[in-house]
Specification:
Layout (H helix, E strand, L loop, with lengths): L1 H4 L15 E5 L6 H12 L6 E3 L7 H5 L2 H4 L1 H10 L19 H8 L1 E7 L26 H8 L3 E5 L4 H7 L19 H16 L3 H25 L15
Parallel strand pairs: 1-2, 1-3, 3-4
Helix pairs in contact: 2-5
Length: 247
């Protein structure tokens, strides 16, 4: 398996480079907040400005969330167009193989990652789709949060409230004031998702000059996270215990 022997260097973050897309958003395993987020991206006409996957969708999410009623056109469009793919999964060893040239290119060519973590529900009630997530209301990290740090990119995280605050207590840097991270304080799951969509919309309307200022501003944060993650981790996720980075 070549990815274990062959680590591909992630190039330095270049603040003057202009990516062709605004954001990168991987959604493989279906969860209601991922379905809802992608439906909102379609509704707000943001899909064309991002690299977005929704590979497996659980159709029950649309019914449980009443998305047919609240977002009829977006839901109809999605139903006809899923799965949404941004890479050819068959050409890759596994979705968390590190690093991988496909990943490097996708992170380089988007301004930030819109990370949909495993857990979004802020309480321990069953989520609207009745899925039996083994952990709810808890701060839970996966490779999704690790990846933008490794690939030298800013991020917005769709997770439980206080997720970014907890990251900062561990010494990781987040992106305020360049990204409005007020969503991290919002306990209401629906409002938090709306705030995230609003921030994606705001950033998406940046001029090239505004993006240049954004990229110059976030560069030291990106470098600090990237240096730390490399000091503490080999970069090969499947064989190296990365969870300790977030404890």
């Amino acid at each position: 398996q070549t990815w274990v022997d062959e680590i591909v260097e992630v190039p330095d973050f270049d603040p003057t480079y202009m990516p062709s897309k605004t954001f990168l958003c991987f959604n493989n395993t279906p969860r209601w907040h991922r379905t809802k987020l992608v439906t909102e991206l379609v509704h707000e006409n943001l899909l064309k400005d991002g690299l977005v996957s929704l590979r497996n969708n659980n159709p029950i999410h649309w019914d449980e969330l009443d998305l047919d009623k609240t977002r009829p056109q977006a839901t109809e469009w999605l139903k006809n167009n899923i799965p949404l793919s941004i890479d050819n999964i068959n050409t890759r060893e596994m979705h968390i193989a590190f690093p991988d040239n496909t990943d490097i290119q996708m992170h380089k060519d988007t301004h930030f990652s819109l990370v949909t973590e495993t857990i979004f529900q802020s309480d321990n009630e069953l989520p609207p789709d009745n899925s039996t997530d083994y952990l709810r209301g808890g701060i839970f990290f996966t490779e999704k949060t690790y990846k933008p740090m490794w690939f030298k990119q800013a991020f917005i995280v769709c997770a439980v409230p206080g997720f970014l605050k907890y990251l900062r207590t561990l010494g990781w840097q987040t992106f305020h004031p360049y990204i409005d991270e007020g969503y991290d304080n919002e306990k209401d799951d629906n409002i938090r998702l709306e705030m995230i969509i609003e921030e994606v919309k705001r950033l998406n309307s940046n001029t090239e000059e505004e993006w240049l200022r954004f990229r110059q501003g976030i560069q030291p944060i990106i470098e600090q996270n990237a240096q730390r993650i490399r000091r503490e981790h080999s970069g090969i996720l499947p064989t190296s215990p990365w969870e300790e980075l977030f404890e």
